[in-house]
Recover the amino acids of this structure.
């Protein structure tokens, strides 16, 4: 499926079989972190809110710290 980046208008190709609703996707053109959403039968991309980005960064930091402990 082809979706448009809401930030820069770039067309992003996604494989429906390998993509899940809520999955984070980085726009290859502008680098914006997007999240895949679905409303009815329509898929669309939405920029990740800053709060969500901060939470994702914190989760990533915790995972890295846990990996270093092993």
């Amino acid at each position: 499926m082809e979706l448009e980046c809401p930030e820069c208008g770039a067309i992003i190709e996604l494989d429906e079989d390998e993509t899940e609703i809520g999955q984070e996707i980085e726009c290859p053109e502008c680098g914006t972190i997007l999240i895949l959403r679905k409303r009815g039968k329509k898929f669309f991309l939405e920029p990740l809110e800053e709060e969500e980005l901060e939470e994702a960064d914190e989760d990533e930091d915790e995972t890295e710290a846990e990996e270093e402990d092993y």
